[in-house]
Specification:
heterodimer, A: mainly alpha, 2 domains, two-stranded antiparallel sheet, 11 helices, B: alpha/beta, 4-stranded antiparallel beta sheet, globular
Chain lengths: 266, 287
C-alpha cells in the first residue's frame, strides 16, 4: 500500500523533460500553477489537459504510473468536491433539508478538483524527472539572490535534499516495522478510528526512534566530513541553461499570458 | 509442522519500470523439526522467501502450505499461521516500542488473546529461553539495555507466541563475537529442547556449518542448491559462482592439502579442523 506513493520519487531517464535544467522545471511548474488557477472555463481546461498530456508524453513516463500517484489524494479530492457542491451559494438544483446543491457549486467543485489533479500530476512529474540532487541544486540557485535579505538558501536546499532522500528510507522502515509487528499478531487494518490510532503506537514509536537515530548518525557523518554550511562551498557540476530551457520557459510564459487573457477578455 | 512451497513466484512492483522477479518458481519442502540454513547473495530472494512463510507476502503464483493450511490473502486463517510460524526480522530490536521489557514481550501473546496469567507464563518462559533474568529486567525500559540484550528481548517477543517454526533473518548481524555465540547457542538449545523447526538465514558460512544440518542456497530467486552441509560446502566452485564462500577453515584445509599434508578436506568447523590437525601431528610424531 505504501508503494503507491509516487510523490518525491525519481524515475531515471533521458527524455527532453529529464534533460531540462532544474531551474526551468521549478519555474515552469510555478508558471503552470499560475495558469491553472487563472483558468475558469471548461474549454480552457481541455487546453491545459492537452498541454499536460504533451509534457507527460515528452517525459516518457507511463501515464498509468502517474495516475496511480493520484490515489493518496483521492480523499482530499472527494472532500473538496463535497464542500464545493454543498456550500456554494447560487441557483439551487436539488435540495434536502439544509443540504442543497447549486449549479455554481458543481462548476466550482469540478474546476477545483481538476486543478488539484493537474497540480499533483505536474508536481509529481517534476520530481519523477528530476533527481533530488538536481532539484535542490536548482532551488538553491533560485533562492541565492535572496541571501542578502536573510534567506538561508543553501541550508534550505540541504534540508530539502535530506528530507527527500529520507522519504524512501522511512517508507521502507515503516514497512519493515509494520511487517515485524504483524508477525507478532498486530492488526493495522480493523477496528474503529480510535482503536486504529491506538494500534499505530507499535509502529510509530520504533519509527521515531529510528528517525532520531538516523538523524544523529547523519549529523555525525556530515561533521566528520567537515560540513560547515554554505560558506566557501563550491559545486562540481554547474547548472547551465540551454536553448531548450529558454524555449520551454517561453512556451509557459505564453501559456500564462493566454490564460490571463482568456479569463479577463472573454 | 511441515512447510511446502509449490511453484512459488513473487514479483515486486508488477507493471512498473521497477518490476523485479524476486522468487522464480520455487519448490521446497521442509519437514517438522528440521534445522535449515538459508544462504544466498544479497538480493537472491531469501528475505522474500521467508516472508512467504507466515503470510506477510503472498505468492504471485503458486502455493504455500503450512501444516494443513494454505496461505491465502483472504479467507485463510492468517492469525493462526502467524502464531505457528514466528519470524524474527533482521535487527529485530528496531521493532521494540513498549515502556518495559515485560510489556514488549507480552505484545504478541496479548494480540493472540491469551489471559493475563498465560501471558505472564509465556513471558517468563520466553525470557528464560534467551537467558534474560526475569526479575531484574522485566520492568526495565528495553531502550536502556545493551545491544545484545535488546536483540534477546526482541527474539523473546517472538518466542512468547510459542511458534512451531522459528525463522530468523540474520539474528547475529551487528553483534560482537560473544553475543553471536550466545544467541546461536540459545537457538540451538531451543531447537533441541522444544523440537521446533528452525530456519536460519545467515551470511556466515561458519554459523551455518556449525548449527544447521541442511543448507539451502538461493541464487537469483531460485533454489540453486539444497543438501546437507557436507554436500553443499564441498561444491566450492559453484558456491563461488553465486558470490558465496565456504567456511574459512575449509579453505585452510584445502590449502594444507595443497601443501601435501594428508588432512581431509570435508571439514567445516573449527572443532573438526582442530581434531584433524592434531591427528596429523600425532601421526607425524609416531612415525
Amino acid at each position: 500500500m505504501l508503494k503507491d506513493i509516487t510523490i518525491g520519487q525519481y524515475l531515471p531517464g533521458d527524455s527532453v523533460i529529464h534533460q531540462l535544467d532544474p531551474r526551468t522545471k521549478i519555474i515552469g511548474v510555478i508558471l503552470y500553477m499560475v495558469g491553472l488557477f487563472m483558468v475558469d472555463k471548461l474549454e480552457a481546461f481541455v487546453a491545459i489537459a492537452l498541454l499536460t498530456l504533451l509534457v507527460v508524453w515528452l517525459s516518457r513516463i507511463p501515464l498509468s504510473y502517474l495516475l496511480k500517484g493520484l490515489k493518496p489524494v483521492l480523499v482530499i479530492l472527494l472532500f473538496t468536491i463535497g464542500l464545493h457542491f454543498f456550500l456554494t451559494p447560487g441557483t439551487v438544483l436539488w435540495q434536502l433539508g439544509p443540504l442543497k446543491i447549486t449549479l455554481e457549486g458543481i462548476k466550482q467543485g469540478v474546476f477545483m478538483s481538476l486543478r488539484l489533479i493537474f497540480l499533483v500530476l505536474v508536481t509529481s512529474l517534476l520530481t519523477l524527472t528530476t533527481s533530488p540532487i538536481n532539484l535542490t541544486d536548482g532551488l538553491e540557485k533560485l533562492l541565492e539572490p535572496g541571501r542578502g535579505i536573510g534567506i538561508p538558501a543553501h541550508e534550505l536546499a540541504m534540508m530539502m535534499s535530506i528530507a527527500l532522500r529520507f522519504i524512501p528510507t522511512l517508507l521502507d522502515e515503516t514497512e519493515k516495522i509494520m511487517k515485524a509487528q504483524i508477525a507478532r499478531g498486530a492488526d493495522f487494518e480493523s477496528g474503529n478510528l480510535w482503536q486504529r490510532a491506538k494500534n499505530m503506537v507499535p509502529l510509530l514509536v520504533p519509527l521515531f526512534v529510528s528517525a532520531f537515530r538516523r538523524a544523529d548518525d547523519l549529523a555525525l557523518a556530515m561533521e566528520a566530513r567537515c560540513y560547515r554550511g554554505s560558506t566557501g562551498r563550491t559545486k562540481m557540476k554547474q547548472l547551465i541553461m540551454t536553448g531548450k530551457d529558454y524555449l520551454a520557459l517561453a512556451i509557459l510564459v505564453l501559456f500564462v499570458g493566454w490564460a490571463v487573457w482568456y479569463r479577463f477578455v472573454f | 509442522m511441515q512447510i511446502i512451497l509449490e511453484n512459488v513466484s513473487h514479483v515486486y512492483k508488477a507493471n512498473t519500470p521497477y518490476e523485479t522477479k524476486a522468487l522464480d518458481h520455487v519448490n521446497l519442502k521442509i519437514e517438522s523439526g528440521e534445522f535449515v540454513g538459508l544462504i544466498g547473495h544479497t538480493g537472491s530472494g531469501k528475505s522474500t522467501l521467508v516472508q512467504h512463510l507466515n503470510g506477510l507476502l503472498f505468492p504471485t503464483e503458486g502455493r504455500v502450505i503450512i501444516g494443513n493450511d494454505e496461505i491465502k490473502q483472504r479467507g485463510g486463517n492468517l492469525k493462526k499461521i502467524r502464531q505457528k510460524v514466528g519470524l524474527v526480522f533482521q535487527y529485530p530490536e528496531h521493532q521494540l516500542f513498549e515502556e518495559t521489557v515485560y510489556q514488549d514481550i507480552a505484545f504478541g501473546p496479548r494480540n493472540l488473546g491469551y489471559s493475563e496469567k498465560e501471558v505472564e507464563k509465556r513471558v517468563k518462559e520466553a525470557m528464560a529461553a534467551v537467558h534474560l533474568d526475569y526479575k531484574s529486567l522485566k520492568d526495565r525500559s528495553p531502550f536502556a539495555l545493551s545491544g545484545g540484550q535488546m536483540r534477546r528481548v526482541a527474539i523473546a517477543g517472538v518466542l512468547a507466541m510459542q511458534p512451531e517454526v522459528l525463522v530468523l533473518d540474520e539474528p547475529t548481524a551487528g553483534l560482537d563475537p560473544r553475543g553471536r555465540e550466545d544467541i546461536l547457542q540459545e537457538i540451538a538449545e531451543l531447537h533441541h529442547k522444544l523440537k521446533i523447526t528452525v530456519i536460519l538465514v545467515s551470511h556466515s558460512m561458519e554459523d551455518i556449518a556449525r548449527f544447521t544440518k541442511r543448507v539451502i542456497v538461493m541464487n537469483k530467486g531460485k533454489i540453486a542448491m539444497d543438501g546437507t552441509v557436507r554436500e553443499i560446502f564441498t561444491r566450492v566452485d559453484e558456491l563461488e559462482s553465486f558470490g558465496l564462500g565456504v567456511p574459512t577453515v575449509s579453505i585452510l584445509m584445502h590449502r594444507l592439502k595443497g601443501m601435501g599434508i594428508p588432512v581431509p578436506i570435508d571439514i567445516f568447523t573449527v572443532e573438526e579442523a582442530k581434531d584433524a590437525i592434531l591427528k596429523w601431528q600425532r601421526g607425524k610424531k609416531n612415525a
